[in-house]
Amino acid sequence: IETSFAEFSIRERMREKLKAARVQTDFPSAEEAYKFFTFSFDPDPENIKDETKSKKKSESNQEEEEGEEQECDEEDCLVNNREDLFIIDQMARDFLVVKPAEYKSYSERLQKEREILFTPSILTVPMSQKVPENMQPRYIEDEGLYTGERPIVSLSNQNILENRILRQEQGKRWFGDDGKLLALPSPIKQYSTRPPIFSLEEGIEPELETLYRKAMKPMHANQYIVGSGDPQGQFQLDIDISGLIFTHHPCFSREHVLAAKLAQLYDQYLARRQQNLTKLLTDKLHALRNAVQSSLDNSGTSFLHIYIYRQTRRLRDAEQEKDRTLLKTIIKVWKEMKSLRDFQKFTNTPMKLYLRKEEVDQRSDKKIYEAEIQAEINELLEEYMEEYEKKMEEYKTELQEWKSWKKAQKTKKKKKIKQSQDQEEEEAENSEYVEEPVKPIPPKLADSLEVEQQVREKAINIRRKPGEPVLIPELSLTGSVTPNDLCPRAEVLRREDVKKRSLFLKVLFNTKEVSRTISRQISSDFRVHFGQIFNLKIFNWPESLKLQIYETMGFSSTNLLAEMFIPVPETTVLTGRARTEEIEFSSNQRVMLDHEGVGSGVPFSFEADGSNKITLMTSGKVSSSVSWAIGENGVPLIPLVSQQKTGIPSALKNIDAVASIGTSGVTDMKKLAKWAAETKLDPNDPKNADLMQLIMVATSGDACVPGFFRLEQLQQEFNFASDEELNRSKRFQLLQLRHREVAEFRNYKQVPLLEREITEKLFENYEKRLRERDVIDSKDHLDAHRALVAKYLQKVRESVINRFLTAKHHFLLSDLVNEEEVPSLGNLGLSLFKLAEPKRPLKPRRKERKKVTAQNLSDGDINLLVNIIRAYDIPVRKPVLSKLQQPSRSSRSFNEMFAASPSPQSPTRSIDWTFNQVLVHPFVEVSFQRTVCRTTAAEGPNPNWNEELELPFRAPNGDYSTTSLQSVKDEVFINIFDEVLYDVLEDDRERGSGIHTRVERHWLGSVRIPFSTIYFQTRIDGTFKIDIPPVLLGYSKEKNLGNERSYDSVRSLSEGSYITVFITIEPQLIPGDPVREKLYYLLKFDTQEDEKLLQAAEKYQAECALKFPSRQCLTTVVDINGKTVFITRYIKPLNPPQELLNGHPNNSQAAAELVARYVSLIPFLPDSVSFAGICDLWSTSDQFLDLLAGDEEEHAVLLCNYFLSMGKKAWLIIGNAIPEGTTAYVLTWEQNQYVIWNPSNGRCYGQFDTFCPLQSVGCLISFDNIWFNIQQYDSPVRINFDISKPKLWKSFFSQSLPYPGLSSVQPEELIYQHIDKAAALELQGRIEKILKEKIMEWRPRHLTRWNRYCTSTLRHFLPLLEQFQGKAVEDDHQAELQKQLGDYRVSGFPIHMPFSEVKPLIEAVHSTGVHTIDVSNAEFALAVYIHAYPKNVLSVWIYIASLVRNR
Amino acid sequence: MAAAAAAPTVFLLMVNGQIESAQGLEEGISQITCKNRDAQQALVWNFPIDITFKSTNPSGWPQIVVSVYGPDLFGNDVVRGYGAVHVPFTPGSHRRTIPMFVPESTSKLQKITSWLMGRHPEFTDPKVVAQGEGREVITVRSQGFVTISFNVVTKDMKKLGYDVSPSDMQNP
Q1: Residues 6 or more apart from B148 whose CB is under 8 A from it?
Q2: Closest chain B C-alpha to A819 CA, distance in angstroms
Q3: What are the φ/ψ torsions at residue A1373 (nearest 5 degrees)?
Q4: Do A750 and B128 touch (CB under 8 A)?
Q5: Could you tell me where the Basic and acidic residues compositional bias lies (chain A) (predicted)?
């Protein structure tokens, strides 16, 4: 092997080597292998030719390898040389099998592939292969079945697939009957399922991109929608008014009348000639005659033919006669006209009648004539013969009958002779019912001569005489009219009059004038030519088209001559094809003229003697045509019926009906039905189904057809459920009610999902309320009148609330945006100065931020904080006097009683006094919304508690919105009780070891503050007078000396008991802004006040508010009708009830107090509660008395008016008081001092009374002026009430604006009903019963005994209390009670209230807690007394007491 | 939450119509944020709100009302924008960009004074922007955007008959 190979390339050598190795062994030996890898061939440098070198270079990489291999070879050589060193007998080639890479030529490969692979051909598979053998392909589609669209596959692909499948086993099952591959319908949807997203501008969402759309007119906005889908939308009607001809006009001369008549006749003649009925009928007659003849010849008789023939002949005769008479009249009129022209010696009309004579061949004419007559005679004879025969037959039968009858008669007669007496009767009977037939007369045979005579006469009348020329009248207008100067004066006048007149026409479309013609003069022949075409562009199907003819006389006014309706053209009538039609008109106007004109509606005559009068009315004809226009593209601009129907839902399908008979027709069902009948509506056409149904309903008349046209035609299409269904659904009802904010459901949470989950109970209350809206429930009110009033009030409230709900949705800028006012210059400077301040100061000052109402409150979040501080002058206990020790009533005096009280009494009673060391042990209990909190008991008549009570507040229905909070009616009761300890020890001996006491509490008095006051005031801080009953059994005032309560005495501090409290709400609730301004805005137009006055009032208020923003200033108020009224109109002297004045005829003070009491007895009802903080409504005094409910303003106004009528000087004070807040009081001037009256409780205070609840005075109002307080202070104690000082009081009406004398809104006089004592008594009984039941109800665990004896005593006492108004009777009463009930320990008191409803009474009784006594042997006494005042004002006294028997 | 308005406070509020109950933070104030230093200068709050609504009726679907406050030139806190958007009703993650606006002063003079005083016009109640009522009386100016991302989960919507899942929306 060795390195001898010089010429060989390295590869060659390698191959050889490998071959050798292969030859040697199968596996190379280790050495061989080693050699193979390590041997380096060492080519001889000489041997290697340049060729090889270059070759080497060209085979770049390999070469290097090979170079290595060469090296290997060389090494190999070396190793070989040292073969002996490694004794390896096998070479590497022995192990290696080296094969050349397998390669097949392309053709060979194709050959092989052909064996393995199958390439389906792209040629179409013959059908026979695809269908089962011996079967023809079946095409389902051809058989009329829908197969669906096959997906699109290219033919070649399909062929390939088919070929492939056929090769498969059972390949044929993939083919359908039609020899095609089975395929599902094309899966490609017809529409894109997702909108294409491409945007023109970057950055803008495609949804938000703006598109340009051409503006479209909202043309189908009304009910006459013709075709909503119609793109062109506009339709056009062309109205062509060509002219007008008068057939009569007032200015017609006699000749004109005749001419008109002649023209009319001539027109008739022309029309007749055109129709040529005579000729037609004559021809027909001939034809029929032949037919009859032939039928007679052939088959005898054909009655029908003969009948028709005769009928036709009669018709022809009539027509001929008409023709003849028409011709005659024409000639007659023409003659008349000629004679008239001769008579008047001028002609007015160019009318001329020519009579063209058409000569006829006399002989042939006569022949025809004769033939005709002969034929007619024959026929008539025939006819008569027939008749004769018929009659003859009749005659024969009749004769037969008659003869037989005669015979019978004869036989009867014979019998008669034979028989006895009763014959006569019998005969009489016979003669009664057997009428004797008349002997028939044989009919006459028609005389042919007579018939001929008849026929000839008729022929002369109706037919042209033979040989007479045919007269053809021709009317022409070729005559000359006599010129004016040749005419008489009257005629000239007439002609001038005509010239003065001109006419024009108005076109009215749907009763609206759309256009009018130009005005044209009437020509002398009374024709007017307009020749105008009006194009009406319309949206609506025309309901009516009308023309009105107006006549203008010279320059004077135009008058409507006549109007006429033009029929709306058929949709097929298009412009260009429309025929001009003449529409007649006439007018019934009566016109008389003083010239030749015959006038209109005036009788006139042609005869010289004035006989034969005729009356003509103005009439004429308008020739016009109406047609639908054709659009530019040749499309008629008509709302086509077919166009509308496509794609418009059913509700619109009856549009065409609307189109055809007008909208008014749709409501008129009869008209609709008529239309349907006329147009032969196909009742089976589904398109007409609903219309047919409608018509059926209408004509059957059962169902009520709405008397209106539906406006929302498409609404039904969008309703997903019918209204009934929705109404039936309780859930929807609930949702709706909640949405409408109906009180019961306003805050209803979580409407159930399913119908069945909603109980009927939910609606019960609501439905009950709805039902009872008009039903007066006397149970709650006990008094029919009050119930009525309550209902009325409820209605007023509802209407007012509705009003304000609408106002609520009326926004002003200030409602939405908080904006700073433009500051004045000074402020601006200050704020500029502020700029220099540090922005975020280290010690920031509080900046007022606009409050935001909290809305996420829930139950328990709000607490009412009541801070009870102290009380003054609480009544103290009186020692219990035994019956024995009681001094006699007469001898008792205040002093005695007072002196006696604190000393211990009898030794036997000393047990009680061991616990009664203190005068009184008062504590305060605050109850609010039935939650009760109490303080600890303090001691003495001037206790000091200083305790804070916290009461939770719950808003009604859990609604914490402002409006809801404003309408909270609950009151805070602050009750003062005395805690009394009683010894219950049975045995005195145990006294040393134990104390057994029972705690009792005795009600002393109360203060009640409505929550609304707290809410609006945000806090209440002050000292209030405690409402202490006039009599407190067992208690007395410590210093009860100053008992006189007249207003002139300066009252001492000890006059009443007082309590100091502080009440607020935690967290602070922001009272909603009263909507007064909005109201003002809303109602500004709703007033009867003078605009100037209102402006002045506004200005005045603004000025006042600028100076003293906190002071009240009222100028206008809203009355109960929601109208703005100037406030002074409310003040007017009004008479108080005469009964009250009669009571104290001499004592004006007492009378005034009584009046004040009367006013205070009218129940109190704050507006803010009833109207949910919306506004103050002021009712006039009579309304107030009728309603028997009102707030401070009404009370104050009434009191003020009473005082005025009593001759006092009185003013209304608008100011702030505790606890009412903004309120109205009354100020009077009496005996050199000002007295302030609180109208809601009837109390009066001197100006300097420190306990006067009035805190500030804003303004004073009298009947003629308003004064605003511009003094430094506003507390009544510190101000001067002298209104004459302009420095202190700013008056509204002044010299610059004098008082205009405003009339009052108050009635002239108040009328009072008499006191109904019986009703009061009945009410009294009922209230007592109810209260007793209630007390028993409140004491479920105890037996409630009623002490009748005590009750009757109390009942006796109550009227006394009323009489003295609860004053100065206490001690007498107490003593008496003590005397009578000595064995009992009595604690009780009378409660006094004005009466409005039962509920407040119950509440008041409950709040005293009398029922809470739990002594087992306690007894109760309850008496009610109602004192009735005029006008059904009731004062209620409830005396309630508990009695415990003393041991 | 991120915004491109130049203001660092956001005030949040939920308006419920007939949504019958809501649990979670219904109203609140976010932290104050400052402008980012990068080129975008966005304000990022990343303020999470978690709230659950419950109702049997979709009327008055909840909306989120965003009011942005920030100091003006003089350091007064003034309103920088109001905006509202309905909470998406399909479950899943949503991003909403609300354009913000503020009410304009009624006159030029008021504009100047309000600028001087630092008391710009504000809505009496931010809820106004969630309602259409009464808008006819106001003028507003646009003021940047606030982006809110919602992660909405609904439950039993289908049971109530409201099908809002996205798959159903596409192939009705």
Answers
A1: B1, B64, B66, B85, B95, B96, B97, B98
A2: 4
A3: -65, -45
A4: no
A5: 46-60
